[in-house]
Specification:
Elements (H helix, E strand, L loop, with lengths): L7 H13 L9 E6 L16 E10 L2 E11 L3 H14 L3 E2 L9 E2 L6 E6 L7 E7 L6 E8 H6 L16 E2 L7 E8 L3 E9 L4 H14 L3 E8 L2 E7 L6 E8 L6 E10 L13
Parallel strand pairs: 5-9
Antiparallel strand pairs: 1-2, 2-3, 3-8, 4-6, 6-7, 7-8, 10-11, 11-15, 12-13, 13-14, 14-15
Amino acid sequence: MAQRPEPRFEALTRLAERLLHHPYPQGPTHVEVGVESLPRGVADIPLPGAARLLGSVLHSRGPRPIAMEAVFDDDRSPDDVMVSYTAEVKSLGWRDFEAGGPMRGGFVSSEWGSGGSFRRPDGDGPVLMISAVSTPTGPTDVRLRLDWQLARRMPAGAPGGPPGMDKLPPLHPPAGVSLLDQNVSGSDRVWSAAATVRTDQTVAELEAHFAAQLLREHWTRVGGADQAGVSWSTWQLPGDDSWRGLLAVLGVFGPAERYLTLRIDLEDTDELPVSLSGP
C-alpha cells in the first residue's frame, strides 16, 4: 500500500528544519521550527505587545538549548518598538546586558537597525536580544533571540574604556541614512561625538529621531529649541553623577548636509556659590 504524502504544512516545516540545521563539532544538534508560535519552554519571555508573531526556530544540542530566534511584524517604527519593548522588559526586572570590552558610543551605523540586550536580574538563563529594522515596503522586522551560549561564555559585566566613556550611548541614524566622518573624543569629564549625514530630513526630524534613543537610555530632557538651521536639546543623564548632555543637529553647511553632535559634561559640584551677604 502506497504511503500517503505529508500535508504541505508539515512538509514545509520539516524542510525548513533541515535547511536550518548545521552540524556542530561538539555533538549532534536538533532544530525545532514553530509557525506562529514559540518553542515549548521559552514562552515566558517578554514579547513586543503590538507585534504579530510569524514564527520561531530553536537550536538545541540534546536536551540543552543553544539559541532561539523569533520573527515578528510590527507596524510601528523601529524606535517606537525599542522604546516600548525596553520599558516592558525593565518593568519586569530584566537588566541591560553588556559584554566586556570597550563600549561603542556616539553615532554608529544603523545597517542592522535598533537593538538591545537584556538578562534576568539573578543573572541566570540566556541573554535576550531584540532588533528592529525598517523594511522598504512592509512593516518593521522585529527579531527576538535567546542565546544560552553567549550567557555561558561571557557573563555580564561593566563595559570597559576610559572613565565617562560608558555614559556616551550609541546613536543610530534613520534607516537608509549613512554616517560620514564619525569621531569620538574626550576625557574623564567631557566626551563628545560627531558625525555628518546627507539627507532631506529636517534638522528637527533628525533631532527627534536621536532624542527618542536618548529617552530609551533613560536620559531626561531639560530643554531645547528648533531654530533656523539648528535643532538642539539639553539633557540630564541617569544615575547619581551630575552629568549633563547636549544634542544638536545643524543644517547650515548645505541643502542636504546635516552635522550631528552629542556632548556630555560632568558638573563640578565642589564649586559652591559665593555668599554676598556675609556669614
